[in-house]
């Protein structure tokens, strides 16, 4: 067996295609994507590529959003993004290769020190293939050139930030770093998420990008869907357990818990709690009650 055995499997499969090719992998590098396009016969008119882009992963070099440019140049290919994608499937007409290999040099064996990967043949009719394809179709958004450019630009900004969070690739054992909101103005989040960060200072922008990296919201969402995703992430925070369970959270108690758990000063904890309150006020239906110990309460305030 050669070190590029997995690539030979993919190459031989794609060369047999007559009308349709599907390339599904979380991580796709542009050199291998171009090699795959070159193998596909000219008569194949439909090439669908499904992958995922996140700013930390692009910054880490495991994915290249520039495949959108190659797809447009090819003229037959379209790129879709599925944020929780982990499956790897490659299809020519009704025959699939399914397994562990991403469309990268190390996974396919096209570079030295290749990974040990597995791809096995399955038919399109296999129920697990159908299940995965259905889930991908329901949860994908277009990987446009504009979005690809935004991802690369934000990845470059993240690389310039020494305090940016490390990448935790889903499926590994490492747990993501503990996160507390940093951005004091949550209305900036969606603007920066969409690539609109003009007139935002570099230090403030770095904080927004760090928050977005920790939030790990998939790209291409409308503002309302983005807000729902952020709110769901907020409600996973231990500090908001009382709000979730009892419909209210005492700000003084939350501040004391932060001092005890994080070892921060009272002033740092106060600032963090105020930031959390600002996020909840922006993304959720809550209101502040400035009577006795300040509280955040679930629901709109009656006037």
TrEMBL record:
Gene3D superfamilies: Endonuclease Chain A. It comes from the Bacteria. Residues 85-107 form the PLD phosphodiesterase domain. This is Phospholipase D family protein. It comes from Streptomyces salyersiae.
């Amino acid at each position: 067996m050669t070190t590029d055995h997995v690539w030979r499997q993919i190459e031989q499969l794609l060369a047999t295609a007559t009308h349709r090719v599907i390339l599904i992998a979380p991580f796709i590098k542009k050199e291998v994507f171009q090699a795959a396009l070159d193998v596909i016969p000219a008569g194949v008119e439909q090439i669908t590529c499904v992958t995922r882009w996140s700013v930390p992963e692009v910054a880490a070099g495991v994915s290249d959003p520039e495949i959108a440019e190659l797809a447009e140049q090819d003229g037959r290919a379209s790129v879709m993004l599925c944020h929780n994608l982990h499956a790897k499937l490659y299809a020519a007409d009704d025959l699939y290769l399914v397994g562990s290999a991403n469309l990268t040099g190390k996974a396919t064996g096209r570079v030295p020190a290749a990974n040990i990967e597995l791809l096995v043949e399955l038919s399109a009719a296999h129920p697990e293939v159908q299940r995965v394809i259905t889930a991908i179709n329901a949860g994908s958004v277009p990987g446009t050139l504009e979005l690809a450019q935004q991802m690369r630009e934000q990845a470059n900004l993240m690389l310039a930030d020494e305090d940016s969070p490390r990448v935790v690739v889903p499926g590994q054992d490492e747990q993501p770093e503990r996160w507390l909101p940093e951005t004091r103005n949550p209305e900036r989040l969606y603007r920066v998420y969409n690539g609109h960060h003009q007139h935002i200072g570099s230090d403030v922008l770095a904080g927004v990008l760090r928050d977005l990296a920790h939030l790990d919201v998939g790209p291409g969402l409308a503002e309302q869907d983005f807000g729902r995703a952020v709110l769901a992430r907020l409600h996973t925070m231990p500090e908001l357990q009382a709000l979730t369970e009892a419909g209210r959270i005492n700000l003084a108690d939350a501040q004391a818990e932060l001092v005890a758990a994080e070892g921060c000063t009272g002033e740092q904890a106060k600032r963090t709690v105020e930031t959390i309150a600002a996020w909840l006020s922006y993304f959720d239906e809550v209101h502040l009650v400035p009577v006795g110990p300040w509280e955040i309460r679930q629901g709109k305030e009656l006037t």
